[in-house]
């Protein structure tokens, strides 16, 4: 009787296993044919916690990426053309030396003296957004005013003097057809920063540099017209003519 009972139990077990096997095959067929969605195992509490943590990190990362633009994006935001503000300011020229495209030291206070009208800006040669636009504007100003204002000085001072050597400045000047009235200056980092601070344009990082153009009439020592914004040649010439007519 015990032997028969054991055999009977084995048969029941085999039938159950066979039924389970057929059931799994049927579910697989149904899922593969996309007749009904497959039901995954319910995730454990630990898995749910990990998924929530990953979602929060991804959301946080996406939010930070959206809120904090890259350096290039930040610089591009400042490259939108147009005048932002115009002001009359008083700036005293610091008594220091810079270096011209020939590699010769020049006294800044002598270059920016009252003997000539001056248009001044700050650039660096590896800049790919605002600086080429500013330099293209100077190129047009030079072309339109050089013939009628032979004493006009266009001055561009590098904010990245460690990169902008006299040789690099000469190449940059050639790129924009700079004539004898347009002087590009470099020098030590210390002196470059001092000049930027004197004209209230120092941003700490060159990538945060904002476009500003300065104009000074002949005979004026420290009074400048300050144009904040990426202004074009026409506006610069218009402001220059206003100064010249006074």
What's a concise summary of this model?
The protein is α/β, with parallel strands linked by helices and 246 residues long.
Q: What can you see in these coordinates?
A:
This protein is of the alpha/beta class and 246 residues long. The protein has two domains: 2-67, no CATH class; 82-244, 3-Layer(aba) Sandwich (Glutaredoxin), CATH 3.40.30.10. Helices cover 46% and strands 18% of the residues. It is built from eight helices and eight strands. The strands form two sheets. A six-stranded mixed sheet has the order 1-8-7-4-5-6. A two-stranded antiparallel sheet has the order 2-3. The longest helix is centred in the N-terminal third of the chain and has 31 residues, at 2-32. The protein starts with a helix and ends with a helix.
Radius of gyration: 36 Å
CATH architecture label of the largest domain: 3-Layer(aba) Sandwich
Helical percentage: 40-55%
CATH class of the largest domain, named Alpha Beta
Shape: globular
Q: How would you sum up the major sheet?
A: 6 strands, mixed
Number of strands: 8
Give the CA-CA distance, first to last residue: 127 Å
What is the averaged pLDDT score? 80
> What letter string, H or E per element, gives the SSE order?
HHHEEEHEHEHEHEEH
User: What is the H level of CATH, i.e. the homologous superfamily of the largest domain?
Assistant: Glutaredoxin
> What percent of residues are in strands?
15-25%
Strand order of the largest sheet: 1-8-7-4-5-6
Structural class: alpha/beta
- The structural domain count equals 2
Q: Which stretches are poorly predicted, pLDDT < 50 over at least 5 residues?
A: 1-13, 20-42, 46-75
Q: With helices defined by DSSP (H or I, 4 residues minimum), what is the helix count?
A: 8
């Amino acid at each position: 009787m015990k032997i028969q009972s054991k055999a009977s139990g084995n048969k029941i077990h085999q039938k159950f296993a066979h039924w389970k096997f057929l059931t799994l095959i049927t579910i697989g067929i149904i899922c593969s044919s996309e007749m009904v969605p497959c039901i995954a195992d319910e995730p454990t509490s630990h898995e749910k916690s990990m998924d929530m943590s990953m979602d929060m990190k991804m959301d946080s990362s996406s939010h930070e990426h959206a809120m904090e633009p890259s350096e290039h994006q930040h610089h591009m935001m400042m490259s939108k053309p147009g005048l932002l503000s115009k002001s009359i300011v008083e700036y005293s020229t610091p008594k220091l030396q810079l270096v011209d495209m020939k590699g010769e030291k020049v006294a800044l206070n002598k270059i920016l003296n009252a003997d000539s009208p001056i248009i001044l800006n700050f650039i660096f040669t590896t800049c790919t957004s605002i600086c080429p636009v500013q330099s293209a504007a100077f190129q047009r100003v030079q072309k339109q005013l050089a013939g009628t204002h032979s004493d006009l000085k266009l001055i561009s001072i590098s904010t990245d003097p460690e990169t902008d050597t006299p040789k690099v400045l000469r190449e940059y000047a050639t790129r924009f057809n700079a004539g004898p009235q347009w002087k590009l200056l470099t020098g030590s980092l210390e002196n470059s920063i001092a000049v930027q601070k004197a004209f209230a344009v120092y941003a700490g990082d060159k990538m945060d540099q904002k476009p500003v153009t300065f104009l000074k009439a002949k005979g004026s020592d420290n009074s400048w017209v300050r144009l904040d914004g990426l202004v074009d040649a026409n506006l610069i010439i218009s402001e220059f003519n206003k100064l010249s007519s006074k």
